[in-house]
Amino acid sequence: MAKATDPLSAPLERRPGAEADPASVSDVVLRPLIDFARASNPTRVHRVRAFLRRVYEKAGDDNIFFLAGAISFNVLVAIVPLLLFAVGIASFLFTAQYGDPAAEIVNRLLAYLPAIGGDVDLVETIKRPIDGILESRRGFTLIGAFLLVWFSTRLVGTLRAVLREVFDVAQDRGMVGGKIFDIKAVLFGGALVLVNLWITAEMEAARDLGLDVLGVSGNAASLLQQLWSLAVAYGSAWVLFLGVYRYVPTRWIPWPTAVVAATFTATCFEALKYGFSWYVTEVASYGSTYGNLITVAILFFWIYYSAVVFILGGEIAQVWTMRKALRATRVGALFRDEEL
Asked: In this structure, are residues 245 and 317 in contact, taking their beta carbons and an 8 Å threshold?
């Protein structure tokens, strides 16, 4: 029995009898596709298996676990100055609206993190050092802001290097050009945090107004609020990943590729978040003796596996794009052969 071959790796051969005069225009159009399907005899399972095998091979070639470790380390190094920079700006802009912008931004941040559970108050764990710095408002100077931005560029630089490997981009921005791009990316990211904070507040106000107008209360209102929070968290993550995949690499990635990568990553990101939450709150058992140590360990694992998902999303999108382009090239070649 002939072994099924991958239609994208099968060699192009001229179909016997192609010189025959076609009976109709539809025959000319459909016959190459029919012969292509019959020659390769692909099945859906075979295609999925071939696709997953190529993703696995490319992920191994790119050493995604090493790249995920690099992202995780730089997240831990850069997230504190980046968060302080965003909170410092927000403290000037939103104090009248929120009163305590640090608590508001920390609460927004926690929407992207798994529920830790146990006896550790994660909000206070993150918020306490931020409050200590923001108590002295005069300490947030232009020089301090520049230093926070400078340290935050480590994360953007790491993402540039990782995505250059994932999307097979040969060129780079160079040392100086790359640093300038990283600074602009951090400033733009900080602006997005503030815009997200404002939009989310307005959307929540509209949601509460809508619930009041519809007369929804009790368990139904609580359920709608949870669904709304889930949708906002997923949408924000999707937009964030879409922008990173599209614009961070030196060569802008095509929109379809970025959309595939962002959709996979945002979906897995949310699933992984709730998977971690379920494990920590329902399965794992740890006493209060470990305290913040458990919190730190869980956050480390969460950041690392989120980095793996981020890289894997880019790998899947890249393989999908290359196979789609190759399939279009081979079908076009079959049509050209038919016309000869």
From this structure: yes
